[in-house]
Design brief:
Layout: H1 8-26, E1 30-33, H2 38-51, E2 60-64, H3 70-83, E3 87-91, H4 92-97, H5 114-125, E4 129-131, E5 148-151, E6 179-182, H6 190-200, E7 211-218, E8 221-224, E9 237-243, E10 256-257, H7 263-272, H8 282-285, H9 290-297
Parallel strand pairs: 1-2, 1-4, 2-3, 4-6
Antiparallel strand pairs: 5-6, 7-8, 7-9, 9-10
């Protein structure tokens, strides 16, 4: 009789590895979306476990808005080089110059402009599948996702027309021009991600840990004071010790006051938190339907 049982984290890891191997078996030109954030860090380790000692059979793809934290891009580039994996970066700036993306008058955030930039990269490299690090616990729209999320020939997502996934059987079929988004971390939580980072002793960008930063209070949260987000006349800039829980553009990522400078500290902080992980993202707080609208148009 086999008395071996998987613990919670081992089960999630096994499930995610199975999903990744399904991608490798079903698709000719997959890509792994890699920002350098905590979720994509876990995806890279899972890819190593799924495919080593062979090479990871897909390139890394990142859409750079030009508003990224420098610490994150440095980490992204270094990690790809360490693993010897091809990194493809497509920039919103270039997409604007080529007429692929068009900012609206007065539009500061580039979240919307990531959509045509990403879809253009999918078309350029003829990717038939893109693996992402989205999790169902993050946000209401992402809670509607399946592991295999079908996108039509326009890169769009219809939450009412997703394929059933019974007994972990996935319908991976796509027609020419269509593609699939796949989310191996669907059943993971923020706590699971950090417990996995601890167990695997994975390096994470310094921005996730407490550090001094100049911040300005806006819309009920602390935002980093930068040239892209200069303080208004009546706003006070404060020197705080902060960290991030989730990373987006530098102009929309809320900082949380924190002294958590180790993974154990972060785990304790998450356990006591009463605000959701993405509750500090100004782009999500703008509208409850914001994420779902972006996803329907082709967002991650």
């Amino acid at each position: 009789m086999n008395n071996y049982h998987l613990d919670h984290l081992q089960y999630l890891e096994t499930e995610a590895i199975h999903v990744m191997r399904e991608v490798a078996a079903e698709y000719e030109r997959p890509a792994l979306l890699f920002s350098g954030g905590k979720d994509s860090i876990c995806l890279l380790r899972l890819a190593e476990k799924a495919f080593r000692p062979s090479d990871i059979p897909m390139p890394l793809l990142n859409v750079d808005t030009g508003h990224h934290f420098p610490e994150l891009n440095d980490f992204r580039d270094r990690r790809a080089q360490q693993l010897g994996v091809k990194l493809i970066v497509r920039k919103v700036e270039d997409a604007i110059a080529k007429g692929i993306a068009a900012p609206a008058p007065g539009e500061v955030s580039r979240n919307r402009l990531q959509i045509p930039t990403l879809l253009a990269a999918v078309e350029e490299f003829r990717f038939d599948c893109a693996i992402g690090g989205a999790r169902r616990d993050e946000e209401k729209a992402r809670a509607k996702e399946r592991f295999f999320s079908f996108r039509d020939a326009f890169g769009q997502w219809d939450p009412k027309n997703q394929r059933p996934e019974i007994w972990n059987l996935y319908n991976a079929r796509v027609n020419p021009g269509e593609h699939m988004r796949v989310f191996p971390l669907s059943n993971w939580t923020e706590m699971d991600v950090w417990e996995y980072i601890k167990r695997e002793q994975l390096e994470a960008p310094t921005i996730y840990f407490s550090h001094p930063r100049k911040c300005v209070r806006r819309h009920g949260q602390w935002l980093p004071a930068t040239d892209l987000l200069p303080p208004k006349r009546n706003e006070e800039v404060k020197d705080l010790v902060v960290r991030v829980r989730t990373i987006g553009d530098i102009i929309s990522t809320g900082m949380v006051e924190s002294r958590a400078d180790t993974v154990d500290d972060i785990l304790a902080e998450i356990a006591a938190a009463r605000v959701t992980e993405r509750g500090s993202r100004a782009d999500d707080k703008a509208s409850e339907a914001a994420m779902e609208d972006r996803k329907k148009a082709g967002y991650f």
